[in-house]
Amino acid sequence: MTQAEAEPVQPFTVLVSENLAERMPYLADRYPQVRFLTVPMEGGEMRSEYRDAHVMFRSAMSAELFDEILLGAPDLAFVQISAAGFDWMGGPILRKRIAEGMQVTRSANSYNVPIAEYVMGMMLSMARHLPTLLRAQEDHEWVRTTARDFAGSTVGVFGTGAIGREVAWRSRSLGAQVVGVSRSGVAVEGFEEVVTSAEVAGVLPRCDYVVLAMPLTTETRHMFGAEQFARMKSSAVIVNVGRGALLDDDALIEALESEQIAGAVLDAFVTEPLPADSPLWSTKNAVITPHTSFRSDGNTDRLCADFCENLDYYLKGEPLVGTMKEPTLGY
């Protein structure tokens, strides 16, 4: 008996989080040569089959089980997450595997459209004073407000990645000027101009809307505080679809209560769900939504397309997309 006969070749194995497997039962039909194994969302134990994994499509999963798989599956080559950002992942075991060559990829195009549509809807709603009109309706009051033209306004988009680009072209199509802010300041299609983070002080006084769509890193944590709000127009509105810790909440509350800025739309928070006793709930001119900007009925199709694109690339030996570029910074 030859060694090949004694040691049968293990099937190419992909681990999929339970909630994703339930939404994408057609993966097995698309890849008949691949063995797909479902990993429970909660609890679960390390199974011998997991040790054969080559790829993982990860969403909700026990952090302990994830670490066990990282330790016990030596052939695991890449992990794709169902999120747009990497900041919620970490730990020494993951860092070790990345240093050894394992790749981590994100679902780079799954949420760009719904988040951009949310941003546009919220900017237009604030321009039309919709929160004021809804409060008046609750009180059975007939109030008259004067809207602000969105056309001719300036939108500052912090983060010129896929979400930022989707916001940019939509804003320009409605007649706004769009300035991008990024770490590098490299020109990006769809923006009239792009500046570096170091040039923020000169950009903020020009903006009627400030959109936060950048990743949370050690460099961007609390990027917006009292100094930044002081530079903004008193008529300006800030929209945060990034991460809660991009903002200094105390400074934001002060800026809103003192009418230093006109409004804030917040869809991400340091603690989620937002505690019932958080002062943000009742802050003047703040609109609170429960991290819902990314939720849309087209997400499953986009998540599957993102994952299959990378799985196809991997099976063909080609470079993956949406990879973690700066592991030390978390994006």
From TrEMBL:
All copies of domain D-isomer specific 2-hydroxyacid dehydrogenase NAD-binding, residue ranges: 120-293
InterPro entries reported in the protein's UniProt record: D-isomer_DH_CS, D-isomer_DH_NAD-bd, NAD(P)-bd_dom_sf
Source organism superkingdom: Bacteria
GO molecular function annotations of the record: NAD binding; oxidoreductase activity, acting on the CH-OH group of donors, NAD or NADP as acceptor
Keywords: NAD, Oxidoreductase
Annotated protein name in UniProt: Phosphoglycerate dehydrogenase-like enzyme
